[in-house]
Design a protein that fits this description.
about 325 residues; alpha/beta; 10 strands; binds iron/sulfur cluster
Length: about 325
């Protein structure tokens, strides 16, 4: 492993050269009419999307189907993670129209399932939890049949109150990404703590066990295989239902370098191990992102839980007969 690879603070000469993307990473250019329509609507409603801000490779596919992940609380983040393309700095005031505009976008796109994420807002007293609540409430009012998945920051220092408020609003899926293995936190996610993120997801389950929990990691940052297995075990200990694993891609030369392009076969192997460890749902491919195919995955996860509950009930009934 190259010690310099994950050191975004190094000079350009010290950084390893960017690796060429393998064929399995190449994606279609975003040119469809659906893509253009989604883009127009987001601009008209003054909404940000993580699809654009994070330079997501799936934007052509997702937006052609009008699946976009709305990024609330502005487009400036108070953290500076080494993997993330979102701007860092002092964010602007929260847009009071954002909840209504998000609800309008969901209605116009006719979404069955929506994913809402945000930048980190360490500057706000509630970390931005109140805006998540308002967005969920606005969506429930305007499109009550749309299922809601939220992907939140770690709400450092205010986690318990933030999680409680958001869980009370009743999202269907609560996602918070661990992003990488704990050994790489000091360089990749320096403003966060691995165990605090795990605790947040545990807190969601203890608040409302019916909310599905979801978390993801990026591969290709220099993590070892056994470290990934350990993350899976940690997630299962926190009763996380759904794991996502995707290839890390370096957004610009200033960001952490790609250590490895993990092969599709290796992603499959990780996926099989995750299933064996008991996750209800697993997404593990090079192009997997937290919100990629989120609606389809949600439907499958719901079905898997219903089946699990039915089996548990049948087992209990059998035991009572004995
Ligand atoms: S995978 Fe998620 S972030 Fe990427 S384009 Fe699709 S919806 Fe947007």
């Amino acid at each position: 492993m190259n010690d310099l690879a994950n050191s975004p603070g190094k000079t350009p000469e010290q950084r390893p050269p960017r690796q060429r993307k393998p064929d399995w990473i190449r994606v279609r250019a975003p040119v469809s009419e659906g893509y253009q329509e989604t883009r127009r609507m987001m601009r008209e409603l003054n909404l940000n999307t993580v699809c654009e801000e994070a330079a997501c490779p799936n934007i052509g596919e997702c937006w052609s189907k009008k699946h976009a992940t709305v990024m609330i609380l502005g487009d400036v983040c108070t953290r500076a993670c080494a993997f993330c393309n979102v701007k860092t700095g002092m964010p602007r005031a929260v847009d009071p129209m954002e909840p209504e505009h998000t609800a309008i976008a969901a209605a116009k796109m006719g979404l069955e399932h929506i994913v809402i994420t945000s930048v980190d807002r360490d500057d706000l007293p509630d970390g931005g939890a109140g805006q998540f609540v308002k967005v969920i409430e606005a969506l429930r009012r305007s499109t009550p049949d749309t299922t809601i998945e939220i992907l939140t920051p770690d709400f450092r220092g205010k986690m318990r109150a933030a999680v409680e408020a958001i869980c009370e609003a009743g999202p269907d899926v609560y996602n918070h990404n661990l992003e990488t293995v704990p050994r790489l936190y000091p360089t990749i996610r320096p403003g966060a703590r691995y165990y605090a993120s795990l605790r947040l997801l545990e807190e969601v389950k203890s608040h409302d066990p019916m909310i599905f929990t979801k978390s993801g990691i990026m591969l290709g940052l220099g993590e070892e295989r056994l470290e990934v297995h350990q993350v899976m075990d940690d997630m299962r200990s926190a009763d996380i239902d759904f794991i996502t694993m995707g290839q890390y891609l370096q957004p610009t030369p200033k960001h952490a370098a790609v250590e490895d392009f993990v092969t599709p076969k290796a992603f499959n192997a990780y996926g099989s191990i995750a299933r064996a460890k008991g996750f209800l749902q697993v997404a593990s491919t090079p192009l997997t992102r937290s919100s990629y195919h989120a609606g389809e995955d949600f439907a499958q996860m719901k079905a898997a839980r219903a089946e699990k509950f039915a089996k548990q009930t049948a087992r209990k009934a059998d035991q009572l007969k004995i």
